[in-house]
Amino acid sequence: MTTVVTDNCLKCKFTECVSSCPVSAFRAGEEMLFIDPDVCIDCGACISKCPVKAIFEDLDLPEDMTHWVDTNATESKKWPKISAKMPPMDGANDRKVALGF
Amino acid sequence: MGSEIKIFKGGCPQDCPDTCAMVFSVQDGVLTSVTGNPEHPITRGGLCVKLKDFAKHHYNPDRILYPQRRVGPKGSGQYERISWEEALKEISGKWNSIIDDYGSQAILNCCYLGNQGVINGLTSGDAFFNRLGATVSEKTFCASGSSTGYVMTIGPTGGVDPESFVYSKLIVIWGQNTMSTNLHQWPIYQEARAKGAKIVVIDPQRTRTAKEADIHIRLRPGTDAAFALGVMNVLITENLVDQDYIDKYTHGYEELKGRVLSDYGVERVSEITGLTVEEIQSFARLYATIQPCVIRMGVAPERNRNGGQSIRAICSLPALVGAWRHVGGGLLEMPLWEFPLKYEEMSRPDFIKPGTRVANITQLGKVLEEFQDPPIKSLFVNNSNPVSQAGHSSKLESHLKKDDLFLVVSEHFITDTAKYADILLPAAMQAEQLEVMLAWGHFYLTYNEKAIEPPGECVSNSELFRRLAKAMGFTDSYWDRSDYEMLNDFIDWSSPRLEGWNMEKLREVGYVSLAGATPDKRLPHAEGNFPTPTGKCEFLTTQADKGNFVVPVWRSMYEDMQPGEPIDPLPEWLPMRESPQSNPELAKKYPLNIVTPKAHAFLNSQYANERNQRHRQGEQTVTIHPKDAEARGIQSGEVVRVFNDRGSFQGKAVISDDTLPGLVVSILGYWHEHNNGSAVNSISSNEFSNLGHAPSFSDNLVQVELVV
Description:
The complex is a heterodimer. By secondary structure, chain A is α+β, with helices and mostly antiparallel strands.
């Protein structure tokens, strides 16, 4: 079981998700967030909070996105914990529009 | 589609401390989503992994939708649909004939907390079975040992408000995996931590919660009381106690001190617990000097032979250091003790005929095997799945298979217990019924609206017992009321805690706090005021004269026929019934202890029939220490068999030092059909803990071998 952040987060980092996480499982990568699968409890509280629908439970992950499971597992170990909302990256709102949200 | 989405207020039905306030969304009469209420101070908008697909769960195609009669052999799962009228006629006919031949005590109810509501929960069948004259069932699956030990020490107090933990500076989580089984408390701990609090976890296993703690104390299972008494020894010998608090607000300190100093020196406690002397000393010093300090006591310490006295020892600690003086200091077990509910009116113990016997349903297999004069000829199961949850389940199954036991089960699904039923009755789920949810992990009473119609012919437990009462010819007004009227009658609106509240206001607002003070003000025992006979924290209990007892709420409010076994009036440690140290003969055959914690993605056995939940939980595993695995030639991922004389189950080996040498860990809740035909309680005994008839699920020896 795991819940993962995928490429819609890239260059956005809206971080709406992090304050909904009861166990502080998010990690702040340079250009996107990751979820540490060893900490995530799979409650799903973050999924609906993401304005660009970047978060998926593995059960719902489209087939061409399954590599994000491994990416979250490895990248999450490299970056610091984030549990308070931060300002999004520059251009995040434009990217949101470009993504169709 | 396209019609308006209607929103209803929900309350999570599960036997969990968090009792979340839910939001039911309904479109065209269909429950489309269930989410956490963002306004609720505990729920804070999120549910948990267990309830993630709760809306879909209501539409699971395996639901029992109609009454059914068994047509194949017992356990074959072959049923035919019958009408409610036929079902009620068959049940009442059979019961009347059993009553004629054997007397009404040949009938027994097995009900627990499959739903935690006021009218559909633990006590939902009490009035009916008391009126019927059935054997009274003692329902002690969880927290009864804690209840007795707690009440004997500090009385039925709600303790520290879980929301007051934000003011704590030392939070001691004793025997609980908070992140899996009390999730909504965790952010409160993090808030305290951000203000400088330390978190200590006391648990044999390195759980996901223990991994996040500042200090993890890994004692051997069943040694909690010894550890607590050893901590007391340090507090007393190093003069770290709050003598003023002890003098004013406690009873029996000199007696406790005598025992602690003579029997629980740190060297001995180190040997018993497997902890170092330094670990015991440094915890005691932290506990005495960091204030406010608070203990969140889980249920796990009660699950061994000495469980009740473990609770007594733990509950004694806060008074010794004066922790109760501070907001956010003391101990939390169950706020439920302060809920203004009229249990006597719910359970109607006045219906019970004097001298009626009692059967403990955690020992259901033993009861069916041993009870005579009369034997149990009919069992009625609702809100529970004893084949999964009771001790020595293989024995229980062998009795459920017998043709001379008339078994009626009201259920959502054909569970490991329901598959043996002669008659199946279809039970409603939470969005399909009106309820008010009580809570044992916080102070809120929560309203649950009926959001959708039950499918097929499913009925709430309240309606089930109305129908049974009518079928049995009971004319008492108890069963003439609507659900709303029953709820209104069972809540004590005259309580000061509910001043200005009534049912209508509760329906409008959705929840009400019963804490009596805001979290920054609640100080239940700063000046004693313990609801015990002496009004003090009773290290030396004044309630031992009549011997062991089960708190009446766990036994239909019946006060007679209490167990009465002798009780040591002071906290003590006794070795486990089954451990290599205490039972070397048995350990020659079965050298490993086992603990069987609650699952992360299931609630006991509920939701374990959902494929997605099994994916989230993963398959049954057996976590074994590298040393024990090596000695048995077991490699990670291999299938192993866990067994003793009582039974066996299988699981995939996980080799990890997250468990201690000599201790294996396997999760509770898997259904037999998904788990090679068995599960963890096949190996557990049905012996009691020493107080409150709690089961001793963590007091079992097993062997583990490779399946070849």
